[in-house]
């Protein structure tokens, strides 16, 4: 069910390697030349993604199937923008601190857009741009951060298994079981990939 996209429409999830510039975090931060990454590469890092119909999120059967299959019982909707988020600039800076969670982070963009940055196996930053209709799952234990883009607005659905726990553990927190489990899963995937390539 992962990577379900409607043909002939603008991509709602794109990814690329980031430059090392300290400019405004809301800029795209492409390398020169640009280095886009296929969604399959994100899947190797444990990220899941879907394209859904954000205009019908309340009645969408595809969203319902994903929630049932993955046990996402908790849902809320939040608006992140200067008008609706108190201490907006300070909050945005805190979201951009590199951190991990001990549970998945599930976000479904209903309006607007934003960037989720994740680390690859070599600790390089990948920027994942999510627009309306894009839903992503960041695995527990992956180091990541979030920022809005220059539009300064996202309306996102947050999903969770059971009661939500939003605790961020800023890097370094390599001793946490969730981090160790994530790295073990990456190593196994890499090993399986090499075995297939050797055939």
UniProtKB/TrEMBL annotation:
Q: Tell me how the cofactor is bound.
A: Binds either 1 Fe or Ni cation per monomer. Iron-binding promotes an acireductone dioxygenase reaction producing 2-keto-4-methylthiobutyrate, while nickel-binding promotes an acireductone dioxygenase reaction producing 3-(methylsulfanyl)propanoate.
- Which terms in the GO cellular component ontology are assigned? cytoplasm; nucleus; plasma membrane
Q: Which domain of life is it from?
A: Eukaryota
Residues where Ni(2+) binds = 99, 101, 105, 144
Q: Which InterPro entries match?
A: ARD, ARD_euk, RmlC-like_jellyroll, RmlC_Cupin_sf
The family line of this record is: Belongs to the acireductone dioxygenase (ARD) family.
Name this protein carries in UniProt: Acireductone dioxygenase
């Amino acid at each position: 069910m992962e990577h379900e996209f409607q043909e002939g429409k603008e991509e709602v999830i794109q990814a690329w390697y980031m430059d090392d510039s300290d400019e405004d975090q809301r800029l795209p931060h492409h390398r020169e030349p640009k280095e886009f990454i296929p969604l399959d590469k994100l899947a190797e890092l444990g990220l899941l993604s879907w394209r859904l119909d954000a205009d019908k999120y309340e009645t969408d059967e595809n969203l319902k199937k994903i929630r049932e299959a993955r046990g996402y019982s908790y849902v809320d909707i939040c608006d992140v923008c200067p008008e609706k988020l108190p201490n907006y600039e300070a909050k945005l800076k805190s979201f951009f601190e590199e951190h991990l969670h001990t549970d998945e982070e599930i976000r479904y963009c209903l309006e607007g857009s934003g960037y989720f940055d994740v680390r690859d196996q070599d600790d390089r930053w990948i920027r994942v741009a999510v627009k309306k209709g894009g839903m992503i799952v960041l695995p527990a234990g992956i180091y990541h951060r979030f920022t809005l883009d220059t539009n300064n607005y996202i309306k996102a659905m947050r999903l969770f298994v059971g009661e939500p726990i939003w605790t961020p553990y800023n890097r370094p927190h390599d001793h946490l079981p969730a981090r160790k489990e994530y790295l073990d899963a990456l190593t196994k995937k890499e090993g399986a990939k090499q075995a297939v390539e050797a055939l």
